[in-house]
Every structure is written in structure tokens, then in C-alpha cells.
Amino acid sequence: MIAELDAISLYEQMAAATDNENIKIILLDVVKEEKTHVGEFQTLLLKEDKQQVEELEKGKEEVEEILE
Ligand SMILES: [Fe+2]
Predict the structure, then answer these.
(1) What separation in Å is there between the alpha carbon of 62 and the centre of ligand 1?
(2) Contact 6, 39 (CB under 8 A)
(3) DSSP assigned state of 7
(4) What pLDDT, on a 0 to 100 scale, did the predictor assign at position 68?
(5) What is the pLDDT of residue 15?
(6) How far is CA 54 from CA 2, 41, 49, 60, 68, in A?
(7) Ligand 1 geometric centre to CA of 40 (Å)
(8) What is the mean pLDDT of the segment spanning 33-58?
């Protein structure tokens, strides 16, 4: 997942840095694919690591409390 997030960050930075619209379009399309890969690994993680599921829920609750 870290590698996928790093890839997203790299391709987004590259897209922001180029003035070539074709390159920008392809990089941002690849970004979308990498986000799908994050979703695939996250789905596996949440199937296998119940502690992570609980901690994600706690984090969500903390944010919602703070933002109320
Ligand atoms: Fe990927």
C-alpha cells in the first residue's frame, strides 16, 4: 500500500510539473489505476487484520468528534 501511495504521489507531482497535456492526461489516468490498487490491497488488509478495522473506526470516530 505504501508503494502504491508513493506511486500516486510521484505521478501527481509529475503531472503537475509538465505543461504537456498528453503526458498530464496519461499520468493522471495512471494515478486513478494506482488508487484502484490501493483499494485492492486495503480490501485484503481489512479482510485479514481485524485490529486495523477497529483502529480505522476509532480514528473515524475521533475525527467526527473533533469536527462536531
Ligand atoms: Fe500499482
Answers:
(1) 30
(2) no
(3) H
(4) 95
(5) 98
(6) 20, 17, 9, 10, 21
(7) 10
(8) 98
Identify the H or E element spanning 28: helix 21-48
Q: What pLDDT digit, counting tens, does each position of 42-53 carry?
A: 999 999 999 999
Ligand 1 centre distance from Cα of residue 68 (Å): 36
Distance CA 44, CA 30 (A): 21
Distance 47 CA to ligand 1 centre (A): 20
Q: Which of 49, 50, 1, 4 is nearest to 30 (CA)?
A: 4
Residue 8 grid cell: 500516486
Three-state secondary-structure class, residue 39 = helix
Q: What is the mean pLDDT of residues 19-44?
A: 98
Coil, strand or helix at 68:
coil
Phi/psi of residue 9, each to 5°?
A: -60, -45
